[in-house]
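User: Please predict structures.

Assistant: First:
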Amino acid sequence: MKPPVGKTPARRAAAPARKPMPAAPAAAIHGASEARQFTIDTDDDGIRLDRWFHRHLPDVNFNLVSRWARTGQIRLDGKRVGPGDRIAAGQTIRIPPSEVEPERSVAREMPKTLSDDQIAYAQSMVIHRDRAALVINKPPGLATQGGTRTHAHVDGLGEALMFDSAVRPRLVHRLDKDTSGVLLLARTPGSAAYFAKRFAGRNAKKIYWALVVGVPDIYSGLIELPLAKQPGTGGEKMHVDEENGQPSRTAYQVIERAGSRAAWVALQPFTGRTHQLRVHMAAIGHPIVGDGKYGGQNAFLTGTISRKMHLHARRLRIAHPDGPALDITAELPEHFAESMESLGFDLALGETAFADDTPEPATREVKKQQARAHAKTIRKERRGERRSRSTAAAPVGKGKPAGKAKPVTGGPAKPGGRTKPVTPRAAPKRTPRRP
């Protein structure tokens, strides 16, 4: 409300507290002073103070944070704190007013403008959303991230996937451009670190569906073939390299077959190498249908089967920072579903593949370690048996007769044993009695 004309007050009332930048955590700013106060959110529990500023107040650089801390202008629950000190959820940070212009800060965080069609397209892919996670069913042909000649990608649609959040969702894993299915994005910095750690530690269970050319002779198995970038391709193509490749492991199960023409398989990767599933299936002689990059002309089926790649991230199971594990499935894309119907496959059969939570099969190195540990245990048990036998062989019962000395007998020493020289003791002298 504007003040009446000609009645400008001599002193203005205290201005309301400034709102935090859009990237700042949800926190109340108390009082009418210029100092700002924020409450540490659970996503930031345990991180360094300078990291908190980097996440939520990027305009405040490290030098400024250090100066504020050195001069006591930053307070954590009323106490002085250093840039490298850890903070905990529920604590209150008091900081001085920002030294940057508010207009610049707000303009920096303003999202780019997307068309209504782009926003509708991005939001139509969402199959799950909560405070920490956003899951989409990525269509084939849409890249996960941009590149030299890639302009349409999931990362570029981040503003349309913000919804009620103040920050863009972050990618924590990737899918190939032509692979469809479950793709997880984190909605907060804390959940991004949480999910990334689960993927790096191989604690996320990923199940893929694929149509492959021909039928594997062994219906269920484990493919262990090391992979490396193929020379001369600029890193765009991978190949099996027994000498210099990185360990790569994929479990597969044949769900159903269409004669000897094609098979529907479930794949579970235990490592996350580039194009791993595609290279492994092509290496055993059964390339994924539509994957001309690794299967050549043999990867395409005649008839009504689409020439697009038939690889779909069907299911993702991963721990959630706020409660029960996240278990999401994604429906097949149109071309994949039509091929399944054309080949006469029953989709209900696929739900039983890798349904149990059996642990990852042990690698050769792990098996060697287990064998060494087992052999060590056996040796310890045998040593205990030898000790018990020697104890049982020793005489047990009566002791030495009193008043009798043990005779010292000379004899050959035991082979390999040590001999100790025995010094004979002289007989004591007797003093004759006086008559």
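Second:
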Amino acid sequence: MSSQTYIANGIPKGPISANLAQRRKRLDSLGNGVIPGIVLVAMITAVAFSARNVSGFALFSPMILAVVAGMIYSNVLGTPVHAKAGIGFSQKRLLRFAIVLLGFQLTLGQVVSIGAGGVGIVALTLGATFVFTITLGRLIGVDAKLTQLIAAGTSICGASAIVATNIVTNARDEDVTYAVASITLFGTVAMLGFPVLAPLLGLDQHAFGLWAGASIHEVAQVIGAGFQNGPQSGEIATVAKLTRVAMLAPMVVALGLMARRGSSDQAAARPPMPWFVAAFVAVVALNSLVMIPAEVKQAVVLATTIMLTMGLAAMGLQADISQLRLRGLRPLALAFCAFLFIGGFSLMLVKVSG
């Protein structure tokens, strides 16, 4: 008789059964966590695409309709707890992969289109907004760590910058939630409102794309606003925004040095470098050097739009307006003032450079 022991279901104990149990656990985790959230996001995405067939909604891109539908669902019906993992997956991994695929719609020639002046506008806006927010936060008495989170989220790249900045600031979870909620709120306002202001401000597609990319908070919000105003605006806005995102790492390094000043802990924080920025640049280079068939490009464009819409739907589902009440009105006022400053300052630079 074999020395191998058996369990009740006939599977021998040992490495094989351990691997099977581990795989089963992963499948159960996937089914109970990620899949329900992705299904919910997909349903809202389908509603957004369908809503464009309704009279009056055809003017809006499915990305904008998705984030609005997500916010309504979340704040009226509530987001199921078991769907959180899938929503987070859609907002982070799926959205970033879509941004990488967006590179197939750009070439290096288009990237050069924003010019050295465009890069200068982005960098100057980022620095000025960060300094303004930090200074105003001190003046009105907002907690220093929460102020840094709001400053990073406004000036760099929204929730991603907030999470990255918190690696070195070590703020409370409530502060992170507040900062993300406020940044999402005002970034959504910008995404919806800036395209309406474009003709009133006399901005052509190039100028509007540069303004949107230099001032709107989240990458997805920039894409939503930019392409709402036209394909050229969307491309320039994406490049300008990714230029801001690329500045996340040096900014976090600077914050880490500030946090270590006067501290006994001299361990250096490792600044995160967004992988999708490097991947996006690689795809743009590939698209510039290799002739890709038109049919393949059309399929990639459709897939990119669907994934971007899902990412924005997930973002809307994460926007819990009730979280803004937990920390009072001063941080909200700070986020609002920072939102006004970055919009006004970048617009001024765009106008002057034009």
